[in-house]
Structures are given as structure tokens and as C-alpha cells.
């Protein structure tokens, strides 16, 4: 004998089945509605009220059969919470992704969905939910969708999942209600699983099929594909939506509107009595047309949720169960919205359950009885039990609805998966000739997972009593790199400068200072690698400072003012051709730098357009003479310089200009020696241009001067 209860939002169904050699016989069914709103969306809100209804059903069945102490029950599918989760990790520089890496990503995405769900209820924590299943909706590498992450490489890997959770509170309140009715839970299942197990056996689950249990307040959805259940969902719309539409359209009390809705399924004309007491007969087609908009809303909500759970694709077929599935036109409209043939959406009653016999003919085609009978059969065949394991010394109780793994245990324990992998080592960021280069540290190591002292993985199956120990993986090491590792082979050039051969190598600077290639780089280092390119840079690199200085303009300071003589600098010849200081050079070039000569005071004066002397040409005693006077004097360190004295680059000079005085006759005696002719007296006459003159007579250019000596007188 199997005693099962289907505890719904509006009513509780109690059923007794008898199993004989794998065949099931329905012995009895009792249905009792709640007297008050003791349940809401599958959650027991009033344990006492629900336990009273359970106790009434139990007593009724015990009067007809034997005493009942154990019961099979199901957690309502409408209590299931579905949430999306996504996680992204950097895989830049990481080896090919393994199965273990992908499992970690998937579980981290499930945990993200679990945390999102908990955030929507401020008094919940993520591990207050059981994960009853998840399916991957999308893998991505660098933002592009991909079929599988295994053996892939890139910069970033992402996994997006849709996961289904059951609040632990639902199970705990269910246990409390049973205990108050003096019943022990023999087995537990989920309502969608119960219906699936009897209508869609495992051999059919390779097909993509949706099962929709349409009750009074909600429509529960389960989807199969690839041999398993891939998603669960719930729509907060069901049969009451249609009942309310009839009530509004015809002014009916809710119970009368509910009866009218049921009559639509069996009668061509529905008799109704509105709240004013007027009785009306409404043709079935007319009433359907009146509530067509409500039917369409229900079909639209269910179809959208099916598409969302099924990765935005229509399933191959849809099975409808539950009392709300009898809503007129609903199967046809669902087929239209899912773009399926009409014969791919069908209502299924308990007559579709294999190996089941029922004597009462009127019960065979009632879809609302599929779930209660499914609970009785599924809870016996595939009961959900608790599994207790130990995670890092903490005792964890799991809801055994599928093959449990270590990943499930870590989720239930509230361990943050993203903190289990070691952190990547700090990167080293340097600049090379202005370009930023990031040298990554080593990747963090995966966590160490042990089950009962043996190495395990995230997807290792677990059983009751297992001891699991998880240690965080080691963090990666900080990036270390030598300067030489960052640079490729450095080029060299051979040149000859003024007969001496040089090998030219690039200049490597680290933060402005010369650095060796075996130097270990630090974060934020600024590396400059510069190969001399011009003649000037070449002389700098070869430390020909004297030649480099020769290329600078000849510079002196004159009376406190710095003066540059750009025309006075060295000349560069490259392979015999004159070239400027900014000209390039190549491997094998022969370079000659002709150094600048020293300069004289006269050259300095001439370049500054300064006359050192004032000159006057004359003729004295028939010979041409040039008289000169200094008018500009140059000094260095207080010492007067002569016009042929050499001036060095960088000298500090001073000069002064003197007033120009005219030449007079007596100035010629600085240039000539006058001797008294033999036989002449000591008297003489000065002549200028043949005329007598004096010593102080001013002279003009070309004047003819003479001294005429008088003869001695004869005694």
C-alpha cells in the first residue's frame, strides 16, 4: 500500500495505490479544499491549517483502509526558483582549458545565480536554497559564443547558466505539517519530477519535451532533453486567471465562475446565475469568445517561459496536465505561439500512465490527478532522500534529487567558489620606447579537493557520510623578467671616425640610467632602447666629446655678451661627401671630422666689423709711407692683446674704442729715422707739398713731405 499526498494551493489530494508485481492499482482518492488561504504559491504559510486538512484526509482514508503512519509527498513545483547566472575569468596566457576548469566555471555561475536569488530576499542567504539542477545556456571565448570551452584559449572565458533552486524553508515547513498530522515522510519528490516520471520515462527524455502542470494559481513547467531534466520554471498564472475572467464578464461569484469554467469542458450550453440572481444560458462558443483575451494571456505567459527555459527554442512537444489544462482553446493557442503542429500539444490524463489500473472510469481522463498519482509512484520508485556529508569539518545536509557531486556540497556549504582558485601573481607593467608592456604573473593553482583522503574533483560523486576537504589553491607568483628577455637581439654597426674603428651598439636606459641586459625589471620601469641615428648622436655614443665640441659654433664672451660664430665650426665628411651634423650614418661608413682652427684677434674684430687701426698714406722724401694709429684695443684677463694673438673657444674678451686724432708732421718720425746729411748744418726746413710747414701741421692722404737741410756756412 502506498499513501501519497499532493498538497496544493487550493486543495490537498490523498491517494492510496496498491503495487503488485510492478503494476499499480488506484485503491482510493480523497480531495479536500483548504478552508482558508493556508498556502501561497506552494509555500505553507499556516502549518496548523494545512496539517488539519492533511489529518482530515488521513482519517477518511483510515476509515476505509488500514491505519496510515507513513506518506509520500512532493515539494510544489511552483516553489522552485529559476535564476540566471554568469561568470567570467581571465585565461590570458593560461594553458588549454580542461574539464575541471569548465566545471569550476559552471559551478561559479550557479553560485552567482544562487546569490542573485538570495539578494532578492533580504532575509535569505545563498545556501538557504537547494540547487535542483542547472543547464548551460552559453559558453563564450572573448565575447564570442562557442560550443565547448575544453581545449580553448583566449583572453576571457565565460559561462552562462540557468539554474533551479528549492528554498529549504519549503521542505522544512512540509515536514512540520506532516509531523503535526502524526505522519512520517516516507519519501519526497518534486511535483514536476513526479509528473515527468509517470508521463515521460527516462527512455523518452532524450527528446526535447515540455511538461506543463496548470493548477489554480500557477503553472509549473519542466523540460527534458538529452536524457535528463534540463530546466524547471513557474508562471504565476493558471486556471484562476480564466475563472476571474468569467466572473468579471458575467458578474458571478468566484465559486460559481469556477463551476462555469468546468462546465465549458463538458457542456455546449452553460447555465449561470449572476450576483443579482438572474439566470442565463450562455452558449459554450460565446463564453469562450468572451474570455478569449484571458486565454490568450495564459497561453502567451506559458509559451514565453517555455522558450526562456529551453534556450529560446520551441520543444518538440508539450504535455499539459493539471485542472487548468482543461481551459478551452489553450492547447491550440499554445501550439500557435510555439510554432508547433496542433497535434504536438496535448492534454494527458492518468490513462497515459503506464502500468496503472483504475476502476472508476470517470477518473481516467482527469489531468489534475496525474501529479498526485505521479507522486505516489515516483516517490516510491525514485525517492528523494537526504544525504549528509562533511565539508571542511562542517556537517551539510543535501537534497538528493540527482547524482550529487562535490560541487553540490560546496554550494550547499556556502563556500565561495571564486575564492578557491589561487589569485594570479601580480603583473609587471613597463614601458618600452613609450609603449606599455604588461608581463603577467603566473596563474593561480586550482584548489586541492580531497574526498575521504583521496584526490577528487568538482564533479566527483558523493554519498552519505563522505568527508570532503577543500584547500584554496596557491596564489601565482609575481612576474619576474630580465631586461634581456624583454628585448630581441640588438643590432650593431661598424664605423670609422678620423681613422679609428668603432662598434656601435644601442643605448639601453632604465629610468634614465644605463642598464645591463641581465637587470631584473621592476613594475613601472621606463625602458628606452636607442640606436644612434645622426652624426651628432654617433659622436656622443663613441665619446668623441672633443669632436662633438668642434661641431658647436665658435663662441666667446665679448664685453659681457655671448657671441656665437656659426660659420666657424668643424666640417663632417661621410665617405668623402660633406654632410650636416643631423645626417644619418650606416654600417661601414668612413667619417672624418675636420676640426675648426683657432681664431685671432684680427679675425674677431673683422667679423664684428671693428677696425683695429686708422691708416694714412703719405710720401716722405720721395718714398711712400703708411702711418697707422690703433683705435680699438682688445683685452683678456686685463692684458691687452695684439691683433695676431690667438683666441680660444669660450674666452671672455673686452674691447675699447679710442678717439681718432689726425696725424701731424712729427708722427712720421715713428716710422723713419732721420740722419743729418754730411756737410749740412743742423738747421732745416719742413716742406709739405713744396711749401714750408711746421711739426704740428695736420696731414692728409697723399701729402708729400720733405726735410730740407741747410748747408754749413764757409768760414
From TrEMBL:
Keyword field: Cell cycle, Cell division
Cited Gene3D superfamilies: 3.30.1490.300, 3.30.420.40
Coiled coil: none
InterPro entries assigned to the protein according to its UniProt record, in alphabetical order: ATPase_NBD, FtsA/MreB, SHS2_FtsA
Positions of the SHS2 domain: 2-199
Biological process (GO), any one: cell division
Transmembrane feature ranges: none
PANTHER family for the chain: CELL DIVISION PROTEIN FTSA-RELATED, ETHANOLAMINE UTILIZATION PROTEIN EUTJ
Name listed for the protein in its UniProt record: Cell division protein FtsA
Organism name: Anoxybacillus thermarum
Amino acid at each position: 500500500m502506498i499513501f501519497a499526498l499532493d498538497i496544493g494551493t487550493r486543495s490537498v489530494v490523498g491517494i492510496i495505490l496498491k503495487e503488485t508485481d510492478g503494476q499499480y492499482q488506484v485503491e482510493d482518492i480523497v480531495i479536500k479544499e483548504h478552508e482558508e488561504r493556508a498556502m501561497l504559491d506552494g509555500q505553507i504559510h499556516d502549518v496548523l491549517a494545512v496539517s488539519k486538512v492533511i489529518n482530515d484526509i488521513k482519517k477518511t482514508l483510515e476509515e476505509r483502509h488500514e491505519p496510515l503512519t507513513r506518506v509520500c509527498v512532493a515539494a510544489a513545483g511552483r516553489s522552485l526558483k529559476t535564476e540566471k547566472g554568469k561568470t567570467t575569468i581571465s585565461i590570458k596566457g593560461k594553458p588549454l582549458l580542461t574539464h575541471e576548469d569548465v566545471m569550476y566555471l559552471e559551478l561559479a555561475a550557479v553560485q552567482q545565480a544562487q546569490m542573485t536569488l538570495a539578494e532578492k530576499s533580504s532575509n535569505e542567504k545563498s545556501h538557504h536554497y537547494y540547487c535542483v539542477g542547472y543547464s548551460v545556456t552559453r559558453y563564450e571565448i572573448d565575447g564570442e559564443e562557442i560550443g565547448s570551452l575544453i581545449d580553448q584559449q583566449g583572453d576571457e572565458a565565460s559561462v552562462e547558466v540557468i539554474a533551479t533552486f528549492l528554498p529549504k524553508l519549503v521542505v522544512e515547513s512540509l515536514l512540520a505539517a506532516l509531523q503535526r498530522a502524526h505522519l512520517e515522510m516516507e519519501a519526497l519528490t518534486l511535483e514536476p519530477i513526479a509528473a515527468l516520471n509517470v508521463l515521460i520515462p527516462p527512455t523518452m527524455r532524450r527528446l526535447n519535451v515540455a511538461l506543463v502542470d496548470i493548477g489554480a494559481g500557477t503553472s509549473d513547467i519542466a523540460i527534458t532533453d538529452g536524457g535528463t531534466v534540463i530546466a524547471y520554471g513557474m508562471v504565476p498564472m493558471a486556471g484562476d486567471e480564466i475563472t476571474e475572467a468569467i466572473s468579471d464578464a458575467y458578474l458571478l461569484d468566484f465559486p460559481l465562475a469556477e463551476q462555469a469554467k468546468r462546465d465549458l469542458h463538458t457542456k455546449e450550453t452553460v447555465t449561470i446565475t449572476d450576483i443579482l440572481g438572474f439566470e442565463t444560458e450562455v452558449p459554450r462558443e460565446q463564453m469562450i469568445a468572451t474570455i478569449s483575451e484571458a486565454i490568450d494571456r495564459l497561453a502567451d505567459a506559458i509559451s514565453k517561459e517555455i522558450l526562456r527555459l529551453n534556450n529560446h527554442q520551441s520543444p518538440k512537444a508539450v504535455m499539459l496536465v493539471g485542472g487548468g489544462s482543461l481551459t478551452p482553446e489553450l492547447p491550440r493557442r499554445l501550439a500557435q505561439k510555439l510554432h508547433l503542429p496542433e497535434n504536438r500539444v496535448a492534454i494527458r490524463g492518468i490513462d497515459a500512465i503506464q502500468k496503472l489500473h483504475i476502476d472508476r472510469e470517470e477518473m481516467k481522463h482527469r489531468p489534475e490527478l496525474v501529479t498526485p498519482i505521479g507522486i505516489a509512484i515516483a516517490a516510491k520508485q525514485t525517492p528523494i532522500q537526504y544525504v549528509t556529508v562533511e565539508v571542511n569539518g562542517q556537517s551539510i545536509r543535501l537534497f538528493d534529487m540527482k547524482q550529487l557531486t562535490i560541487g553540490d556540497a560546496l554550494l550547499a556549504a556556502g563556500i565561495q567558489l571564486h575564492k578557491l582558485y589561487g589569485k594570479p601573481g601580480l603583473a609587471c607593467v613597463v614601458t618600452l620606447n613609450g609603449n606599455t608592456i604588461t608581463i603577467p604573473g603566473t596563474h593561480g593553482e586550482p584548489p586541492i579537493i580531497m574526498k575521504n583522503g583521496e584526490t577528487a574533483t568538482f564533479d566527483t560523486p558523493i554519498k552519505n557520510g563522505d568527508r570532503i576537504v577543500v584547500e584554496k589553491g596557491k596564489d601565482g607568483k609575481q612576474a619576474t623578467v630580465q631586461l634581456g628577455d624583454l628585448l630581441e637581439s640588438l643590432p650593431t654597426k661598424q664605423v670609422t671616425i678620423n681613422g679609428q674603428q668603432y662598434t656601435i651598439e644601442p643605448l639601453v636606459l632604465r629610468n634614465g640610467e644605463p642598464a645591463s641586459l641581465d637587470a631584473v625589471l621592476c613594475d613601472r620601469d621606463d625602458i628606452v632602447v636607442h640606436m644612434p641615428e645622426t652624426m651628432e648622436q654617433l659622436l656622443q655614443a663613441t665619446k668623441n666629446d672633443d669632436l662633438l665640441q668642434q661641431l658647436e659654433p665658435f663662441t666667446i664672451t665679448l664685453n659681457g655678451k655671448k657671441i656665437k660664430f656659426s660659420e666657424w665650426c668643424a666640417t663632417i665628411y661621410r665617405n668623402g661627401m660633406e654632410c650636416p651634423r643631423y645626417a644619418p650614418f650606416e654600417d661601414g661608413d668612413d667619417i672624418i671630422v675636420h676640426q675648426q682652427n683657432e681664431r685671432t684677434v684680427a679675425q674677431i674684430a673683422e667679423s664684428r666689423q671693428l677696425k683695429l687701426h686708422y691708416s694714412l698714406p703719405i710720401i716722405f722724401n720721395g718714398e711712400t709711407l703708411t702711418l697707422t694709429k690703433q683705435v680699438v684695443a682688445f683685452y683678456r684677463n686685463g692684458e691687452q692683446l695684439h691683433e695676431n694673438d690667438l683666441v680660444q673657444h669660450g674666452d671672455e674678451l673686452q674691447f675699447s674704442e679710442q678717439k681718432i686724432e689726425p696725424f701731424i708732421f712729427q708722427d712720421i718720425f715713428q716710422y723713419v729715422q732721420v740722419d743729418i746729411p754730411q756737410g749740412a748744418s743742423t738747421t732745416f726746413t719742413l716742406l709739405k707739398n713744396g711749401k714750408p710747414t711746421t711739426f704740428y701741421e695736420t696731414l692728409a692722404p697723399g701729402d708729400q713731405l720733405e726735410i730740407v737741410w741747410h748747408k754749413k756756412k764757409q768760414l
